[in-house]
Amino acid sequence: MKPARSLASRRAQAVAGEGVAPHNAARSATPPSAAQQPGRHDDGVAEMHADPSTLRLWLRLLACSTQIETEIRRRLRRHFGTTLPRFDFLAQLHRHPQGLRMNELSRQLMVTGGSVTGLTDQLAKDGWVRRERAGDDRRAFVLQLTPAGRAAFERMASVHQVWIDELFGGLDATEQRTLQALLGRLRWTAAERATHSGDR
Fold first, then answer.
1. How far is CA 39 from each of CA 15, 25, 51, 92, rounded to the nearest angstrom?
2. Is 140 left (phi over 0), alpha (psi -120 to 50) or beta?
3. pTM for the whole thing?
4. 40 pairs with which residues across the strands?
5. HSE-up of 39 (CA within 13 Å, CB side)?
6. In the structure, how many helices (H) and strands (E) does the chain have?
7. By the 8 A CB rule, do 90 and 109 touch?
8. Does residue 30 register a pLDDT over 90?
9. What is the pLDDT of residues 109-160, one digit of tens each?
10. Do residues 60 and 12 make contact, with C-beta atoms less than 8 angstroms apart?
11. Are 71 and 167 in contact (CB under 8 A)?
12. DSSP string of 38-95?
């Protein structure tokens, strides 16, 4: 299997038209039907005029995210014998020393309840997490880090920060702040448009 980075690069090249035939190369000489006229889809929805530069930008963001995540996963396995899901699980509990219910942790991690249960079982067996029944709901459990789990996570987190600093080291402090501001604005505006898009 080829690395995700090369796949993203090939997709970006295809979008840019490098090494692929133009979309109109095999256009039929038969006039299009009314439903096939430019600016309309078969379902009658008006076609939006796309800007290929936005697609290239999206692919670049995807490639960067995948590349960095893949490297972090590799280093966590190599140096700590752990996985990124386990690290993220511990990170959430570290941010909430009072503990989190399992359904809250599931929402924070954006994973299924079954995934949280599996990780909880593993980390409880390692002695890094404890679960206690919630006082107001005997069917629910609250998860907390044990002292051993907190110490183990903090060791990993300090090294993880060094890795992130290294991987972003190609950008100076000003560039990093600019990128953070732009991505923050993109996240806000994308969420706003998604909220108002309906079923488009």
1. 20, 19, 14, 47
2. beta
3. 0.70
4. 46
5. 1
6. 7, 3
7. no
8. no
9. 999 999 999 999 999 999 999 998 877 777 788 999 999 999 999 999 999 9
10. yes
11. yes
12. TTB-TTSPBPP---HHHHHHHHHHHHHHHHHHHHHHHHHHHHHS--HHHHHHHHHHHH
